[in-house]
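USER: Please consider what follows.
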Amino acid sequence: MENIDYFAELYVAGLFAVAGWNIYFPHRDKGFDFIISKDIYLVGQIIRPVQVKGKYPTEGKTNKAVYGYVGQLTARHPDMVLAIPFFPYENPQKPSCVAFLPNYKIKPHAKGVHCEPARFCEGMPIPRKEFLRFFNEEGLSKLDSLKWSQKP
């Protein structure tokens, strides 16, 4: 599973690069998977730490009303991005969607934390209606705002 997790990190880093972000990988994988920065006109430089948690359904996974990451995070930061690429069971080489979530959407859980912005239906992850703004290109574009990490 370690190699596939690394693939998810690089896939998400590629999405950030295409969107104009600079990506900085740490010497040691302790804490954040990477750091992103971007100069925004009339705003200045934005710097955000990123954790990536890929979701890979296994054969026989049943439908779920909520689906996402449940577990421990190695680090937290007020301006962090929790990126969750959701891979479909049928095609694990490309995520069907990617969520880019601010720290305030990460909630306490008995196993550490949870952030479940999708549902799982008939073998496919599907963004939940109330989290749509955090997914794919729309979600990625919102990171350009200084207010992105602030609770509305």
Summary: The mean pLDDT is 92. DSSP finds two helices and nine strands in the chain. The helical segments are 2-18, 136-142. The longest strand covers residues 112-121.
